[in-house]
């Protein structure tokens, strides 16, 4: 049996405030009554003022004791960014591999990604014991370097030349991934990411990325 042909390209998107209009951990924090504090830490991390891994641990710690059933409620209120789902579906139909790489959480993101038909999801996981969040992250934290490594690993796995990779994000923790991509896109982004991106887009629609998927037909 012959090996599968390489994909036409690789499109990797951040999730919070990029593929989604919201920050997932802030939606969870609202159920714990600590949204304001979590928002403060998130904002500082996205500006590059705090180490992402440390900031994530601090935010998740504030959720200790929260019933894990709230994650289903959070999934029900997710709002994809205008054009995000259509962009992923167009890319997939054009022969591109699609991926979400997130500092957010599998428990919330996975069902939507499956519905859209996204090929890969890499994210964090909440540690849960006796049906409640422990306040810790389960497994390695998906920080900026993990995002970069994921882009490189997926490109190699699918036989995609680095020049045919597109990565899009909004915050400082997306900078390494955006720099590593053939085309790095800052979408409605913080200054820390805008400074290193090849392309800066201010939206409102993620379909504005479509012309940058080299080789894909422009509608």
From TrEMBL:
It comes from Brachybacterium rhamnosum. The gene is serB. Gene3D superfamilies: HAD superfamily/HAD-like. Its EC number is 3.1.3.3. InterPro entries: HAD-like_SerB, HAD-like_sf, HAD_sf, PSP. Transmembrane segments: none annotated. Keywords: Amino-acid biosynthesis, Hydrolase, Magnesium, Metal-binding, Serine biosynthesis. GO terms for molecular function: hydrolase activity. Belongs to the HAD-like hydrolase superfamily. SerB family. It catalyses: O-phospho-L-serine + H2O = L-serine + phosphate; O-phospho-D-serine + H2O = D-serine + phosphate. Its cofactor is Mg(2+). This is phosphoserine phosphatase. Pathway: Amino-acid biosynthesis; L-serine biosynthesis; L-serine from 3-phospho-D-glycerate: step 3/3. It is an enzyme of class 3 (hydrolase). The keyword Membrane does not apply. It comes from the Bacteria.
């Amino acid at each position: 049996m012959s090996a599968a042909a390489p994909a036409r390209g690789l499109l990797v998107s951040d999730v919070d405030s990029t593929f989604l209009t919201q920050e997932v951990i802030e939606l969870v924090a609202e159920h714990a009554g600590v949204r304001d504090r979590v928002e403060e830490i998130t904002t500082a991390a996205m500006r590059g003022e705090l180490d992402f891994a440390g900031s994530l641990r601090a935010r998740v710690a504030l959720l200790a004791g929260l019933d894990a059933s709230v994650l289903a409620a959070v999934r029900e209120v997710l709002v994809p960014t205008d054009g995000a789902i259509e962009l992923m579906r167009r890319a997939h139909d054009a022969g591109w591999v699609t991926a979400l790489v997130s500092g957010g959480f599998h428990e919330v993101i996975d069902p939507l990604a499956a519905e859209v038909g996204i090929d890969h999801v890499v994210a964090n996981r909440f540690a849960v014991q006796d049906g409640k969040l422990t306040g810790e992250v389960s497994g390695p934290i998906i920080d900026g370097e993990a995002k970069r490594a994921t882009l490189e690993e997926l490109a190699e796995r699918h036989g995609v030349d680095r020049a045919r990779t597109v990565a899009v994000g909004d915050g400082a923790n997306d900078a390494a991934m955006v720099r590593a991509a053939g085309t790095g896109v800052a979408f409605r982004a913080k200054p820390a990411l805008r400074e290193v991106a090849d392309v800066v887009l201010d939206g409102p629609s993620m379909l504005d990325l479509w012309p940058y998927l080299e080789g894909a037909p422009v509608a």
